[in-house]
Amino acid sequence: MSTEHDVAVIGLGALFPGARDVDAYWQNIAQGHDAITEASPQRLDRRFLDPDAVAVDRLATVRGGFVPDEMPFDAGAFGIMPVTVAGSEPDQLFALEIAARCLDDAGYLHRGLDRARTAVILGRGGYLTPGMVRLGRKAREGEQLVGILQSLLPDVGEDDLRRVKAAFSAAAGSYGPDTAIGLVPNLAASRVANRLDLQGPAYTVDAACASALIAVEHAVRELRSGRCELVLAGGVHLTQDVTFWSVFTQLGALSRTGMIRPLDQRADGLLIGEGIGILALKRLDRALAADDRIYAVLKGTGSASDGRAATVMVPRVDGQVLAMQRAWADAGLDPATVGLVEAHGTGTPAGDAAEIETLARVFGRCDGLGPLQGRAGIGSVKSMIGHTMPAAGAAGLIKAVLAAYHGVLPPTLHCEQPRPLLKQTRFAPIVSAAPWTSPRIAAVNAFGFGGINAHVVVAAHGEPVQPRRPSRSVTDRADAEILALAAADPEALLLALDAGRRRGGTGLCRLALVDPSPERLARARRIVARGRPWTGRGGIWFRDGGLLGQGGKLAFVFPGIEVDFSPEIHSVAHHLGLPAPRLPRNSDDVERTGIGVVSLGRFLDRVLTEGCGLQPDLYAGHSVGEWTGMIASGIVPGEEIDAFLERLPRGQLAVPGVLFAAAGCGVEVAGEVIADLGPEIAVSHDNCPKQVVLCGQQGEIEIARQRLLDRGVFCQILPFRSGFHSPLFNDYVEPHRGYAASLSFGPARIPLHSATTVGIYPDDPDAVRSLIIDHLVQPLRFRELIASLYEDGVRVFVQLGQGSVPGFVSDTLAGADHLAITASDPRRSGLAQLRSVLLALFVEGAEVDPWLAVRGSDTRVPVSLVTPLIRVEGSLQRSGPGPGPGPGLEPGLDLDGDDPLRVALAEAGAELLRGPGEVVSALRRTQRPTRWVHQRRLSVIDVPALIDHSFFPQAPGWPVVSDLDPVVPMTMTLAMLCEAAVRARPGSVVVEVEQLKAMRWLRVEPAVSVEIVVACDPRDPDVRVAEVVGYASARIRLAGSWPDAPAPGLEPLSDPQPSPQTAAQMYAERWMFHGPAYQGVVELIAVDRGGLDGRIEVLDAPGALMDAAGQLVGYWLLATQQIDQLALPVGVERIRWFADKPPVGTLLDCRLRVRALRPTEIVADLELSLEGRLWCTLEAWTDHRFTSDVEMCRVMRLPEHSFLAWIDGSVALFDEHARRAPSRDWLMRRYLGEAERGAMLAAGPRRQRAFLDDRIAAKDAVRVLLAQEGIAPVFPAQLQLLDVPDDPHQLRVRSGYGDDLQVAVDRGEHVSVAVARRGPVAVALARGGEDRAQVACRAAGLLLQCPAVDLDVVEEQEQRLRIRGQGVDHEALVQLQQIGEHLVAWTMS
Amino acid sequence: MTRAEILDALTQIVSEILADDLEGDLHLTMETSFSHDLELESIELVALAEAVQARYGAHVDFVAWLSELQLDQIIELTVGDVVDYVLRASSGAPG
Predict the structure, then answer these.
(1) Is this prediction's ipTM beyond 0.85?
(2) Model's pTM, two decimal places?
(3) Averaged confidence pLDDT in chain A
(4) How many separate domains does chain B show?
(5) Is B49 domain-assigned?
(6) Which domain holds residue B72?
(7) What CATH code is carried by the domain that includes residue B14?
C-alpha cells in the first residue's frame, strides 16, 4: 500500500481510570495494573446497590473503572471563563484538554498546524452525563417534586412549595444561558475546534461501543481524500449515572461478581469504565515529509452492521467477520500476519463467545480447519479499566498503537482459564508483558449494541522505541499540584498540615513540596517532625529558619559551558509571557554552545527577576558565565556581547592540540600530579574540593590522567577543546584584547563577583578590560569564590543555566548551611524546574509566590463528575395555606419510612428528609465557591511610597522607620482587594465595591506578609468576597466593562466659604500627615457646614487617588470642628466606578457632603468627576473620630513645636486626665523612640503608665530648656531618655545635648513633673498632706541624697526656700511653684 | 557476595552521600538511576565511586571504570550497572 493510503498516528492523548496521561496509561498496561475500584458513594449512592438486583433502580455491583470524582481543569489556558465551568458538561472540558495534549504530543499545539484543514471527530454517546443530570433537576425535577408534594399534601401553602422548589433548584447547581449552550451533545467535538481554532469538520459520532473506531474510520477517509491534513479522532465517555448502570443491570450485562474477565470462562459480565482517548492522525506521506514522530500506522479500517439479526442486542458473528474482512482488504495485508489482537472482550459470555468464533473464522483455527502461522497474542484493556463504551475503541487502539511502537506484547488480566474455544484459535491470552518481534501488526475490535462492528489494522513503523521514561520523579510532572506553607515553628506547621492547608501562613518555618499526595504528605510530615533542613530531594523542601529570611544573601550564578546542554524554555516563556531566545541544540561547537549558555542565562535572569520578582544580592559566573554576569549586572550592554558572540568564527576559542580533563580531586593532588610536566599543562579550573579541570597538550594530559587513575582518582577527558583559563591561551588572546577595548562598560547595578580575582568587578572600564583578559588566561578560582561569598553572607545559590555549579557549591560548602539549586535541568521542563526553584526559595524565606510557576493556578477550576442525590435538610417553616395550619398538620412534617409521600419522593429522585429551608447538600461540592489565595509582602522597601503615609512625622531624614509608623492606607488595601479579584477573573473590571471594612491598621514596619483571599459569592457569580486576612474585607462586583455614568447627584454647597488653608498649606503645616507621594489634594475650593468641594490629582502611589478623596473628609473635620478632629477611615458602604482610572496627573473634581456627624464618627458621600462626568461615587465613607483636643492635634502634627505637658518656667507637668488623647498607644508612638517603646512594653502593664508619663514630662522639660538655649526645635523621638540605675527620680539624656544635662522627675497619681537643668537637679510633687516645707525638704533631700527628715528650712523668701541638713554644711535652694492644683518643689542649685 | 548484599552496601553508601537519614526512606532497586531517580550530581557520583572502591578494595577499580564511560552513559547509570560491575570485578572477570 502506498503512503497516501496509510495513516500515521503522530500524537496521543488519554484520560482513563488510573491514568491522567498517555505515559501513565501505557505504564499501567505494560505492568498489568488493575484500575477497577468501587465507585465512590458520591458517584453511585450505595442505596442503589443490590446484588440480587431486579428493580430498575437497583444495581448488581458498584465496581468499575473511574477517573477521579473531581479533577482540576485549567479554564484560563483555553480562554474559558472559570465561572462558567461549574455549569459545563465535564466531558467537553476534558475532551478539550486531552485533545490539546494530543496535539501537543504531535508537536502542533503551538506551531505549524494547518488549522483550516484540521478536523475533530469524536465518538460519544447520548447518555445522561453529569451536566444533563444537573439540567434535568433544574428544568424538570423541581417541578415534579412540587407537584407530588402538592397532590399528597394539599394543605402545604404556595410559599412553602416555592421554597421547596427553590431549595431543590439551588442544590442542583447554577444554570443560565451560558451553561445551556454547553449542554448540547455535539459540543464535545465543537468545543475542541472552537477553543483550538480548528476549521475542518468537527462532530461527534454515535455507534455505541464502536463509536471511537467509527470516528477513526471517518478520520482515515478525510485524510485519504486529502480534504484534511490532520484529524483528532477518538472517543469520549465521562458519565457513571445510575441510569446508565441500570440499563446494563437490566440487560444482565453487568458482572454480579464485580469482576471483568474478558475471554475467561468464568466471565459473568462487564464492568463499566470511563475515559477519553484521542489520536492525532495524518497521512503517512505527509507525516514523513514533516518529520513527525510516528507511533504506528493505521493500515486499514472496516465496518459493518449485523443486518437483520434476530435481535439488535445479540452480537452476530457474520457482521463482525464482514467488518474485519473489509479492514484487512483495505489494509492489503494477509490476516495471518497479525501478531496481536486487541479484542472487544467485554467479558459477557455471549459477547466473548461470538468474538472468539469471529476470530477463528477470520484468522483461522489451529485444529486444522484453517492456516496457522504460529500463535498470536490476544487481550483486552477492558480487563484493566472496564468497558469505556464510546471511548472503548480509542482505549484499545491506543493500547495497540503503543504496543507496536514499543515492541511489547502487553498483558491482559483475569484470563487464567480461557474459554475452551479460544484454544482452537491462533490466539493465546498474554499473561505478562513480552517482547514483540516482527511483524508487529495488530488488530483492534470494537462492536456496538445494535450490531455495529468496527475493526482497525495497525502496523508498526520502524524499530521499537523504548517507552518514554515515565516521570518517576514527581518534580518532573508539569501539572502536579504544590504545597507551600509557612508557620512559626514545626509544631504549628504540622497543625497546618493536619488542617489540610496547602498554602499561606506566616513565619520562617516553611515546607514546600510538589504533588501533595497522602503518601508524600506523610513523608513531609516526618521531615518536619524531625526538624532538620531538607533541601529538595524527592521534590520536598523544609527548613525551620529559612536562610534568606534570616538575612542570608541570594546569589545568581551563571554556569559555563558543559557537555549536556539541552534546556527546555518554551514552557516557561509561554507561561510567563516572556520572549524565548533561540538556543542551539547540543553541539560540540564551543562557540555555538557558548552563545546558548549566555542566552539561557540572560533568559533565566529575566524569568526570576521580571517574571518572579526576585532580586539577587549579587551575581557570579563560572567561566563563560562571567560574561553573562557582566550583562546581567549591567556592566556591559547585552547587545554588545551578542554582537561579539555572533561574530565569533568557529574555532576561535580552540587551541590546537589542547584538551581539558576533569579530575575528581582538589588542587593539591592535581598540583602534585602535574608538578614535573612543565608549562604545557596547568590547572585551569579549581571548581571545588573534589573537582579540578586540567588544561594541557594531549601528551601531558594523558600522562596526568594515568597518574590520577593510578592514585584512584576519577579522571575524564572532556569533549570540547579550548585553552580557556590557562596560560596555553596566552598566544590567542590578542583578538580578544582588541575586542575588549571596543566594548563600553558601566558600573554594575548589582555587584558581580569574579572567579578570576575572587572579588567584586571593578567600576573602572579599563580595569574591567584588563580583567576580561586575565579571565581568559588565568585559572578559575571558583572554589575560593564560593567560599568567599559564603564568608560574605551568601547562603542561597541559584544556577541560571545548566551545569554543575550546584554540585561545586555544595562540595565546597559541605557541612555549612546553604542551598544550591539550578534554574534549568535537562531532565525536566523549564516550568517544572522553575517551580522547584520557587518552592526552594520560598522555604528559605524569600517572599515569592511559588504558584507563579504553576500553570493555571489562578484559573484552574475543579470540575466535578458527581451528581449525588440531593438532600434537603432543615425543617419546613410552614407559612400555612391560609389563616392557620390545617387540621392534622404538624409543624415539622414527620413522615414514616413507608409513608406514600416518602416513596413518591424517592421515585422522583429526591429525598425529602425533613422539608426545605436552608439547603445543606452534598451537592455543595459542585457549587463550592472557588477560592484564590495570594500572598503579599508589605514594607517600605516593597512599596517605597508608603513612607509618605506615616502617622507620626519625625525630624527630616530620621532614620528609624518604625518611629514614623508607615501604615497601608485603607484605599491601598482596597486596591489590593480589587487587584486580587480581577486576577481571579482576568479580563474583568471592578465596577462596584460594597461593604469595604478596615479592621485594624496594617503597619508595614517591620515588613509584614499578608494573605489575600478571594472567594466567589455562591449567590452571585459576578461578586467576589475579598479579604486581606485580619485587616480588611470587601464585596467586589466584576463586570466586562464599566456601566454608564449617572448624572452627578450631590447638591451644591449651601453656604460656600473659602477654605481656611490652601491645599499647599494643608500639607506644609501637616494638617494632613501625608508625604509627597500621597499629597493628592491640589485645591480646596470651598467649605461649609455641610461639606467641601476640592480638586485632586491622580498620583501613582497605590491607593493615592481615593486616599486624597478621604483626606478631604479629614480636612473638613479640622476646618469645622473644635474637638476630636483626628480621624481615620474605617470603611465605605459602596463605591461605584464608571470608567478606568485616569492617567497620573489628571485632575478630578471632588464633592464631599457630610451625611452624618456623630461623636465617634463622620459619614460622608463623595463624587469624583472628570470634566463634568462622574468617574466614581463613594457612599457612606466613614472616618472614626479619635478623642483629641486642639493641643493634642497640634502635638500630633507639629510635635517639635509643641508640648503635651504644661510648661511653667522650667517645670513641665503632665496630667493625663487633663488631656483628650486618643489612646496611650498614640501618645507612646508620638513621644517615644523605638528603643524606648521597647523598654516601655517590656516594663509590664503596671509600670507602663508611669514610664510614659515620666518621659512625656521629662522630654518636654528638656525641650523647654533646649529652646531657652536657642537650640533648634527637637522632636520627642530625638531625645532618648535612659533610666538612672537605682534612682527613680532621675533620667539621663542619651548623647548629643551635653553631658551636664540632667532631668529630675517625680510623680503622683496620673501626674508626672519634670525639671531639666545643666547640672544636678531634683524635683518633688507635693503629695496629699505634704506642706510647703515638707515638699521642699524632700526635693532638697533628693538633691543632697539624704533623708528629708534630716533637713530643715533655714531661710524662706516667698516661694524660694533655703534648706540645710542637721550638722552638715550642704544646703539647697528650692523653688516652689503652684501649677494648677499641684504644688511642685525643685532645686535651683 | 550476592547481588542483594551489594545492593544493601550500595544503599548504605548512597544514603551516606545523600545524608538521607529518614528511616527507611531510601529504596534502591536495580533499575534506580543515579541521575534521574536519586538526582545525584556528577560530583556525588565521583564520591560514590570512591566509596565503592574503598569498600571493595583495589581490584574493584570502579573509579577507572567510571572514568572510561561516556558522559551520556554516566547519566543513564543505574544501581544495577554498579552491582553488575562490582560482581564482575570481584569475581575476577575483566571489567
Answers:
(1) yes
(2) 0.54
(3) 86
(4) 1
(5) yes
(6) 3-90
(7) 1.10.1200.10
